[in-house]
Amino acid sequence: MFHSVPPSGLTALVRGFALLAFGASLATPAFAETVYRWKDAQGITHYSSSPPPEGSARQLDLKPPPPPRDPALDRQSLQQRVETANRQSAEQKDRESKAAAREQEAAARVQRCGLARQQLGVLKAGVPVYGRGSDGKRAYLDEAERRAALESAEAEFREACSGVDDTTMRAATREANRDMRSAILCADARERVAQLTRSGTRASSEDIRRAQAAMEKQCGR
Known about the structure:
Helix content: 55-70%
Strand content: 5-15%
Number of helices: 5
Number of strands: 5
Largest sheet: 3 strands, antiparallel
Low-confidence stretches: 1-32
């Protein structure tokens, strides 16, 4: 069924349609024309693609919205960044681990060189040389044992100190000498305690206490 529209209603309808049509033009993504906002003498705000005759309009900078992003591409990009970060972190840890291993190996080599040089020096000095027997007592080397030990020490020195500079070698030897003196003092202190506490001895409790205190000082607890 059709209904007639009174003239006043028709005017309102036309105005409403014009506003809707203009609003739709603003919502389109093309943004091909510049839009102006201005007010007329009655204070009513208008929007148009051309400035009003008075020239008091404000130009609106309407930029087209960015194109929608593909969620799949975003997820792929994020995954790639995560994989890259994980790979770089693993590579960095691997480099640090290898560098630490090289440093430890170099330090162990220098320590071995210092001990080899110290042992060789002792054997070449011509002084009596002894080791510790299974019972903890001193066992001195005879001439044959000394020659064999000297040959072994020379071979160890050549292998351990190959590539080690003289300054580092001397410092390592001094460290080895200090360690050796500490080890000898510790062994002597242990032997002293063993002698005092051996069955059949007449050592006083005070002598034993002092010997044990000296052993703890030399050997640590």
